[in-house]
Design a protein that fits this description.
Rossmann fold; 5-stranded parallel sheet; about 180 residues; alpha/beta; ATP hydrolysis activity; 7 helices
Length: about 180
């Protein structure tokens, strides 16, 4: 089955964006960061046209998104996708990754979505990626598991990885499908 519309799902810190970019490169598809589409301004302002922009992209013949999907676009993406790559890694893998990433972003004042930077103050917010990854790990697993077994999404080819090594070993097997 050719992979033309791919979601890479998992919790913060799983490596969704990194794998999505690698998959997109191998399949010669455009890659879209959902956070970059959603957060477009200072103070984490959201794009009022976010759902419309995602719907436009999702209506095209090929794409890779790096997200489980925000609530306002989740069903749309899961319905239009043909493949879900589920990065279902344990906390022992996730937490060092998300902590290193957030620490680097904070210390180096790296600009992310909409020109925003992670600050030390945000580390104490329940929305901070480190807290989110810790507190929502089991919930995100349950949410994705429910969706991959939901009859509405029976059309999806689900690729379930429980370790980064599994994903790393699988990636070289990807080959572009026929041009459409």
């Amino acid at each position: 089955m050719p992979m033309r519309r791919v979601l890479v799902a998992g919790i913060s810190g799983a490596g969704k964006t990194t794998l999505a970019r690698a998959v997109a490169t191998r399949l010669r598809l455009p890659c879209h960061e959902l956070d970059a589409l959603r957060f477009t301004g200072p103070k984490w302002a959201t794009d009022p046209q976010f759902a419309r922009r995602v719907a436009e992209i999702a209506s095209t013949s090929g794409w890779v998104f790096d997200s489980f999907g925000y609530p306002e676009v989740r069903d749309l993406l899961w319905t239009r996708a043909d493949t879900v790559i589920w990065l279902d890694y344990p906390r022992s893998v996730i937490m060092p990754r998300v902590l290193r990433r957030s620490l680097r972003r904070t210390l180096l004042r790296e600009r992310v979505f909409g020109g925003n930077v992670e600050t030390w103050r945000e580390w104490f917010s329940p929305d901070h990626p480190a807290w989110w990854a810790w507190t929502q790990h089991a919930t995100r697993h349950s949410d994705i598991d429910t969706r991959v077994h939901d009859p509405r999404f029976a059309h999806l080819h689900v690729i379930h990885f429980t370790s980064p090594r599994e994903a790393d070993d699988w990636l070289p097997s990807l080959r572009p499908g026929p041009a459409q």
